[in-house]
Amino acid sequence: MSSGPTPTAVSSTSEERIRRFLATASHDLQSPLRHIAMYAEILLDELGEKLDSEQLESLTAILQKAQTAQRLTKALMSFAAGAPQVSPAPVELGPLVDDLWTELKTEMGAHDASIAHDRLPTLNSDATLLSTVLKNVLANALLYRGAADPRVDLAAERSGSDWLIHISDNGRGIEPVHQERIFEPFWKLPQPDAVTGPGLGLTASRELLSALGGELMLSHSDHTGSRFTIRLPA
After folding, report:
1. Looking at the domain covering 89-233, what would its CATH class be?
2. Which SMART domains match (predicted)?
């Protein structure tokens, strides 16, 4: 089964549109994110001792999320400029996936969704970029859910000098006629309850993985669900 077009199959015009979009969006987000982080720090400094544990935890989470978003937008700006800044460090995949899943379930109101995985490896990668890729793939499993409660299964295996991370869901699946197009920029599955958004999630994820020395593939999809595979150097 085809895994979709390779990154080189994307036209230069489309690549330029992606880079312009990422550059503009990332630049415009920098200022509000900087202010959110700054005000969160001020509130923690001035009110930290007066807050109860739940309030302190919430305010700390706001600061951490804003700082993470700042790092991501800076990385996307450098990527859009053609010089991606990658900061590799040990990343524990299991806790990262669990945190992202908890966050997504809350954001998307998918309280009936579940995830399962065995012990996942520690990777030497860029945590911010890898988080973005994983979040995009996991979010699709919730966006394009089927009739049953959403379920995602993760598994990792070594393949030579690489890690293969398989992300399987029980969603609607992708019709064969559309499987060649899912990585195209600004393209979305034609469905009655179309999901809003620019249609860049999988495209950007594949490009970010390329900057990490890896790739993103659709390795299986039918009426029982889809499986995406991430390849990353070990």
Report:
1. alpha beta
2. HATPase_c (SM00387), HisKA (SM00388)
